[in-house]
Structure formats: structure tokens, C-alpha cells
Amino acid sequence: MSLYTKSISSFLISRGRHSSLGSLAGLVILISSIPLIAVISNSLELSGAQWLNLWSTRLVELLWNTLSLAFLVAVVCLILGVSAAWWISRYEFVGRKIAIWLMVLPLTVPTYVFAHIYTTMFEDDGWIGSLIIWLFGSSEFIPDIYNIGGTTLVLSLAGFSYVFLLTNAALSNSTKNLEEAAIIHGAHPFQVFWRVNLPLLRPAIAAGTAVVVLHALSDFGAVSMLHFQTFTLSIYLQMSGRFDYQSAAGLSLVLVALSLTFLILERFFRTRQQYYASRQSRAHQRKTASPTVTFMIWLWLGSITLFSFGLPIAWMLKWTAEAWAHGSIQSEFWQYSFNSLLIATIAASLAIVVALPLSLFNARSRSRLSNGMLQLSSVGFVLPGPVIALGILAFILTQLPILYGGLSALVFALIIRFLPLAVQSQDAALQQVTPTIEQAGRSLGAGPIENLRRVILPMIKGGMASAWVLVFIDTLKELPATLILRPTGFDTLPVRIWIEASEEMLELAAPAALMLVIGTLPVLWVLMMNKGSQKT
């Protein structure tokens, strides 16, 4: 952190604390907006005739497919995530703590791994396909998952954990006074849930749904493996197959408009209705589940676990064991693992450093400017991986050609891609630091840098740890930007999964998928422990 603190020091001394932080935050925003600027610039080169051609040939179908997929995934994730969070937060039952982990573990499996596993399991000789043939005596009853239904299934199993985490946290912090008041006035349980609990949960549900929808809009791995045409797949094909960067930029601009429209509407409707619970209210106590209720809970949670983690991990273990027995896991595999861990560690470490001035500026300024900067930092979530790679590639070729083909270009793209995770986590942690604590440090003679090092950073270390873990996990699983910008010969585990899956080499794809899960588990454990310590 020494170079970073020195850079802050020069700003603070020369221009004053808030102005210097604002300048540094503005520089972060400018750098993170490079892909968006490149997309807008390239799309402006499209003529009216080219836009008309896009509309008549691609846009209508892509709009329908993408919006329909996002809607269906959001609905399924809401059903899975909210129901699981309700059972776990409202009842005390055998294995409850294990159930929390089982609902979070699907985050370790990337969408393209889900897609690859389920396409193989639904084949005639696959686990699910063989079971259907055994039950019905014919392969005609095996459903085709190369469509919107199969894509919805895959993205929902991969994404419902986001809704579960946020909803479970909101339910765990809820109070029982309002529920008791509703019951006293004659409301039955469903009315209590619909008119009391659900309004209080709306911010958490909306936040979880926003994450799910943005992931669905920008997903590349699952839609490409299932051959379902959405904006991200079409953008990638325009770039890699036809080398038509203008059309790719035009499609990217439409996708950005869709994502921004959704974010604006979501924030508008969330701020129109706000619900609060008194701090003096009593915390909600979990009910002890009867044996019948415990059976029902585990029947539902077990079914979710079976399809979201049980079958995928069993598949990985089976094929990895066969690869090991056949000697297919060679020294190159460990190099791919090292490359993935290296790039994820570098990107996560740099992301929290880059995000800190923006988070500090927003937490201390709380102005329209700082809030606008915070929203602009979400470019990485608005733009899918191929679009960010396109923007970075265009910028490097025109402004910094010396970086072309190097690892720095990939790191640059990954930081922009996952900067929102680092900013949001650190900003949330800074909201809990009272400004008077900083003022007390300065009144005792501490300078801005010393105050940052000895007061602020120790108090937000939990938020910084969460930010690092979230960026590390997503970087470890990231595929499209890595596929486009990686240096020659620098393959990662996601890239190998992509290559082996496209060639139907199951024995080689499974070990890489399993290693991704193993690499994610320790940092996921740190995240869960950090959340638990913050709650207590």
C-alpha cells in the first residue's frame, strides 16, 4: 500500500483533502469508462443503413431473447432464493448451518461449467438422460435444453444464491413487532408475509434481483454453450468471427442502454417506497421445526442442492477420477491452475486499491457528484466481458500499443470488469465509520495519510476483505475477457474448460472445473466468516 498512500499524500498536500480525493476518484471513473467510450465511439461510425440492417436482421430477435431470458431467470431465482432464505431464517432445524452453506456453494460453479455438465447429463448416455430412458423406455422424453428453457435452468441454478444471501441477511435482521401487530388485527400467515414481510424485504430482493438480471444480460459462457442467441453471444461472434467491430459496438450500445434502463427503473421504484423497522423492535426468534416441517424443509432445500451443486460436483469428481486414472492430468494442468490463481490474485489486489479513493470520496462527500461517480463505476457490470475486452483492445491499439498481447491488458480489463464489487463493498464498510472518529484522529495531530493508515483502514478491513474475496471469485471464473485478451500461451482454467468442452473431451474439462471449485472454497469461507463476525 506504500505507493498508493504516497500518491494520495501528494494529492492531499497539494489540493486539499476533498478536492484531491475527488480528482483521484474522477481519474478512476475516467479509466473505468474507457470500454464505454470505445463502444460509443465505434457505434457512431455505423451509418443509418447499417443500423437499419441490424434492426431488420438481428436486433428484434436479440431483444426478445435477452429480455425474455432475464425475466425468466429473475423469476426462478426469486422463487428459489426467497423460499430457501425464509425456511432457513424462520426455523431452527437439524443441519440449518449446513443448509446455509449448501445454498451458497453454487457460487463456486461458473455458468459455462453448469451448461457443459447439464448438456452432457441430458444426453442419451448421460445420467439424467439414462434415468429418463429407464423410466419411460424411450429417449423421446429427454427434454432439449438447447433453448431458452435450458438456458434459464442453468443461469437460475448458478445465480439464485445472490438472492438467497441478501434476503437471508434481511430476514435475519428483521423484527417481530410488526408481524405480531398484524396477527393481533386478524391477519393470517399469508397476509402477514404479503403485507408485512415482503415490503420490508423489497430492498434486499430488489438488490438480489438486480444482480441476477445483470448477470443474465451479460452472461456469455452458458448462452454460448447452449447456442442461445443473446446480445453477448452475438457481440462475440461479430468480433471473433466476422471482425465487424462497428456492428459489435452497435449491439453493445443497445445492451448498455438495456442495462442502464433496468438499473434506473429498479432504483426509481425502490426509492419511491421505503419501509423502516424501529431499532427498539425485538429481534425475530426462529421457531423449532417439528419432524414433519424439518422433512419438508430438507425436501425442498435438498432438491435445490441436488441440481445446483450435488449433481455438478459428482460429475466433476467422476470424470476427474477417470482422468487421473488414465494419466490425463499432466504438468500443463497445474500451470493453468497457477495462471488462474495468479491473475485472480493480482486483479483482486489492484481492484481494492483502485476502488478505495472512489469509496472514500463518496462516503465523505455524499454529493450528487460523488453519487454519480459511484453509479458510473458500475460500467463493469453493465458491459459484458466481450464488450469490455473490445473497448480495452481498441484503447490499447490506438493509445498504448506497447501493452498489446501482454498480461497487463488482461489485468486492466478484469479490474474494470469487477471494480463495482470492490467499490460497493468498501463503500458499505465506510458508511459505518463515523466522521467524528477521523476528526478525533486529526485533532490529536494525525495527518491525512496517518489517519487513513491507522484509523480508517483498520476499521474497514472487513469490507476490504469482502471486496477482495468477491473480486477474486469472479475473476477466477471469468471467461470471455480472458479468452480475448490473454497473452499467447497463457491459458487459464476457464479457457481450458472452454476448449475441452468444445471438443467434447470430458476427462480434461472436469479436472479444470473441479479445480475452480476447490480454489474458490477457501476465499468463500473467508467471506462467510467475515459476514458472521460483522453480524455478531
- The CATH architecture category equals Orthogonal Bundle
Number of domains: 1
What overall geometry do the principal axes of the alpha carbons give? Answer: globular
Amino- and carboxy-terminal Cα gap: 29 Å
> Number of helical segments?
25
The percent range for strand residues is: under 5%
CATH topology: MetI-like fold
The string of secondary-structure elements, in order, is HHHHEHHHHHHHHHEHHHHHHHHHHHH
Report on this structure:
This protein has 536 residues and is mainly alpha-helical. It has one domain (18-322, 357-461): MetI-like fold, CATH 1.10.3720.10. The protein has 25 helices and 2 strands. The chain has helices at 2-15, 17-32, 34-43, 48-90, 96-104, 111-121, 127-136, 148-172, 177-184, 189-218, 221-225, 231-240, 245-272, 291-325, 331-365, 368-376, 379-382, 385-399, 407-430, 435-443, 448-459, 461-477, 480-485, 493-502, 506-535, and strands spanning 91-92, 287-288. The protein has a two-stranded parallel sheet. Helix 3 crosses helix 13 (245-272) and helix 4 (48-90) runs antiparallel to helix 10. The longest helix has 43 residues, at 48-90. The protein is globular and about 65 Å long.
